[in-house]
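ligand=PXG
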Amino acid sequence: MTDKSSQTLAWQAMSRDHHLAPFSDVKQLAEKGPRIITSAKGVYLWDSEGNKILDGMAGLWCVAVGYGRDELAEVASKQMKELPYYNLFFQTAHPPALELAKAIADVAPQGMNHVFFTGSGSEGNDTVLRMVRHYWALKGKPHKQTIIGRINGYHGSTVAGASLGGMSGMHEQGGLPIPGIVHIAQPYWFGEGGDMSPDEFGVWAAEQLEKKILEVGEDNVAAFIAEPIQGAGGVIIPPDSYWPKVKEILAKYDILFVADEVICGFGRTGEWFGTDYYGLKPDLMTIAKGLTSGYIPMGGVIVRDSVAKVISEGGDFNHGFTYSGHPVAAAVGLENLRILREEKVIEQVHEKTAPYLQQRLRELADHPLVGEVRGLGMLGAIELVQDKATRARYQGKGVGMICRQHCFDNGLIMRAVGDTMIIAPPLVISLEEIDELVEKARKCLDLTYQALQ
Ligand code: PXG
């Protein structure tokens, strides 16, 4: 046994004996032992056994500028030496948070010039829940409290985040959702569209919003929250008819629209925000992940001026976190935004790398196991099916997990959401690295197909 292996075993024992891993079957993990990731550069990871892995998921959808950017480490180090911590409570502030708020406002949609900082996307959505309810109370409409989310939407793991989300597996644990949150159908044509055409289904799914507003009563609805493209739910790109119809419905009713941009924000669609891509007009936008490229935890809520005005004229908003706008995180966020802007990362995605990724990914549609390939920007999904024509799945085989295991063994990180394989590589992935990603993906599809015969 090499030194490395004994080191890996030692870490795996620490995992087994002391670590409760998030979103994991901890018992199963203890038997198998986690893969230990020890270093990273660009779009590649290395594990403790020296294996090089192409990270098709940018960590957890967050490492926009790629791994190993010294500039981000340097600003963090400098900020730690100068002012490692101070808070934004009780009428104090510090330069990094203020400069980051300004830098975010500069790239945010017009009329969205205010930022509330949090430590994560989940805390961002907890902030959203309290802010929209407080907003309506200040407007003299205290009954407007109900928030409409979507089945299979993901908005985080805190109580409000998981309640706003529509993941049944999460609702089953801990008595969620909390009162005052309701859910409508998701615009997932491939999985749920039945005999409708994608556009018919998109309109149907959008109409569920209007139906729910009328059922709850406009006077009781505070907001609708949605990801422009559902990420954790399986890279669900709505049919073209969906967002225009939702936009029409939102314009008819006096409710707030919250775009959860935690995944779509900061360039993933080839625009700064997913709502820019779809031409939506959100009142609040939750952000995290790409804001700091995941180098340090940070999230926030970008707030439309009209909403911010009501909140700021309403006296104390009794809400905030110790790490709201943390100076080191803010310094990293600022530098990350500088990199995105000055290196024209999003323009590159828009003009060059995303079109290429999408073209190459779609070549996989001819594979016998593949029912659909869809994608947008630096997001992609591959639906694994038994029957391409009817979109029928293999029953009880766990095809997604089989495929994920082959990816794991062949140096590619691709996530499985049920039998949907998903990718969201770093935004800086090159054309050659895209070729490698697609070739590896095809190989893993072949191996999965062989395993099923
Ligand atoms: N909103 C969206 C749209 C997200 O994707 C959150 C909120 C919560 O952010 P924090 O920073 O609190 O995790 C997320 C997070 C997965 C996976 O399995 C996705 C997320 C987190 C963990 C796992 O794809 N997204």
